[in-house]
Design a protein that fits this description.
Length: 98
């Protein structure tokens, strides 16, 4: 599901106009991103959580040239599926025979 499909689903289920549904999705995504930028953890009970993991700098190797090069420290978002989401996905796999 992409953002446009999410907007369409919200529009149908919540009886919203397309601009209203789009605004709700944008607000949701923007607020989650803002929280992560501040270093906060975002948790949606039963679905998932997002947090930021910090990685230290290290010396990497350019695969084309073999040259060593410094890699700067970085922060990356980390996704963790919730218990209920895992159970729901596994239940669906059993139903479809996978």
């Amino acid at each position: 599901m992409n953002k446009l499909e999410l907007v369409s689903a919200l529009r149908e289920k919540a009886d919203l106009s397309r601009p209203e549904a789009s605004k709700v999705v944008d607000l949701f995504v923007d607020n989650m991103a803002d929280a992560l930028v501040r270093g906060d953890r975002v948790e949606i009970r039963g679905l998932c959580s997002f947090s930021i993991k910090e990685y230290e700098g290290y010396v990497g190797i350019n695969p084309k040239t073999g040259e060593k090069m410094p890699i700067k420290p970085k922060k990356l978002p980390f996704f963790k599926a919730g218990k209920e989401l895992k159970a729901r996905v596994n239940q669906q796999e059993r139903k479809s025979g996978k």
